[in-house]
Amino acid sequence: MAARNKARKRAFQILFEADQRGASVQTVLADWIRHARTDDRQPPVSEYTMELVEGYAKHADRIDELIATYAVGWTLDRMPVVDRNILRLGAYELVWVDETPDAVVIDEAVQLAKEFSTDESPSFVNGLLARMKDLKPSLRREA
Description:
Elements: H1 3-21, H2 25-38, H3 47-70, H4 81-96, H5 102-116, H6 121-142
Helix pairs in contact: 1-2, 1-3, 1-4, 3-4, 4-5, 4-6, 5-6
């Protein structure tokens, strides 16, 4: 598994855990880093995982607003927790991280949905992130 792929998966897991626990993503990230330093069985938290989690945290309100706006027929709190957090991560990387091609961001998010969510989730994630990709220039201006 490529390093960035692993980093995205771990970032998703941190966002998911924070959502489930009702904790801040920074708190959960700090927990993961501490566990990795004190338990040899825990893999280290990569720099890119930290960048993704911290970047999401910085723009969390705007990201949730974008998801709520473009997820036709779904409110954020009605959305499956897995999908919500895959979309949060994907939206952050799509709108704010220029180094990663848009197609890669969307494909990685779809793969996470295939691995962790329902049969309908990959197409939902793909459709919503593709819509954001098409609107990206205006979303960046508003951000």
